[in-house]
Each structure stands twice: as structure tokens, then as C-alpha cells.
Amino acid sequence: MLDSKFMKCKDVKGNSALERANAFKSQNPSFVWVAKQSYIHGSANFAIPSNFARSFLGSRKNGESTKLVMLDGRVWEAKYIIRIKSTKTVVFELSSGGFRALAKANDLKVGDVCVFEFLGGTTITFQVLIF
């Protein structure tokens, strides 16, 4: 069980952040994400795994408001984006501004690991856990 003061843990030998994130169990749909340079410092939108988006966000509309919520109650707003690439591949994303604000406020570094837990509701809401 995570306590409400939990924000970010340091790696412990033999118990990496990725291992801890993968071990996290939720009753809600979730996915694990490893921080990359382009999401933390670049202008790239935050990519949502396509299988996850199709399964749990399939009925949502392009441009829909999304909330990123931390355990301590802080909230960042982003837009849900559905984009079709020139290869006809459908990409599901969150606008970069909202996610980068969360990353900056939580001092995310390349290699940090997050779990995005989909809470559902009328607004797309993800609880974000940082490992």
C-alpha cells in the first residue's frame, strides 16, 4: 500500500524503480512508463500505449480534457489527442504542456518510472505514481 506522502523513491540495489512499478497492482487499468529525454525536456506529446487507449479510451473524443492527479491531490490538465500519422498509424497522446508541467513539478529525470492508473469518470483521469 502506498501512503499519501509517497512521491518518489530512490532505487535500491536489486529493487529497481521499474521492478517496483511492474509489481504495483491496481484494481483500475494502468500502464507503466519510463521517462525519456523527449518527454521530459523536448516538445513531444506524451504517447499512451495504443492497446491501452483502444481498450479503455476508445469512446473518448479528440481534444477531450484530461486530468493527471498525484496522490497528494495536485492536478495537471492535458488534452487527449488522437492523431493519424502519414503511415495511417493511429497514435494516442496527451498534450505535452500538461505532462511537462507535471514532470517539472516532480523533478522527473530520464529513467524515472511512472504508473498511470486510469480512474475513469466523465473526465479522463489518471492517477500518476512515480517510482
UniProtKB/TrEMBL annotation:
<dbReference type="InterPro" id="IPR015300">
    <property type="entry name" value="DNA-bd_pseudobarrel_sf"/>
</dbReference>
<dbReference type="GO" id="GO:0005634">
    <property type="term" value="C:nucleus"/>
</dbReference>
<feature type="domain" description="TF-B3">
    <location>
        <begin position="31"/>
        <end position="131"/>
    </location>
</feature>
<dbReference type="InterPro" id="IPR044837">
    <property type="entry name" value="REM16-like"/>
</dbReference>
<keyword id="KW-0539">Nucleus</keyword>
<keyword id="KW-0804">Transcription</keyword>
<dbReference type="Pfam" id="PF02362">
    <property type="entry name" value="B3"/>
</dbReference>
<keyword id="KW-0805">Transcription regulation</keyword>
<keyword id="KW-0238">DNA-binding</keyword>
<dbReference type="GO" id="GO:0003677">
    <property type="term" value="F:DNA binding"/>
</dbReference>
<dbReference type="InterPro" id="IPR003340">
    <property type="entry name" value="B3_DNA-bd"/>
</dbReference>
<protein>
    <submittedName>
        <fullName>B3 domain-containing transcription factor VRN1</fullName>
    </submittedName>
</protein>
